[in-house]
Design brief:
44% strand, 57 residues, 4-stranded antiparallel sheet, HipA N-terminal subdomain 1 domain-containing protein, mainly beta
Length: 57
Amino acid sequence: MSKVSKLDVYFGNRLIGTMALYKDTLAAFEYSKDWLKDGFSISPFSLHIDATHTATY
């Protein structure tokens, strides 16, 4: 079984999204559905706020 580590990211009490690390080599970030409604990009260089994309590194 593969291990996935997850970290929820908050702005105050509001969930921005979830960062996940898979097999200690692949990282991904996904904005929460609520944040996509009226939130802002937390990194305009690489984490554009878009419901159709998940940023992976």
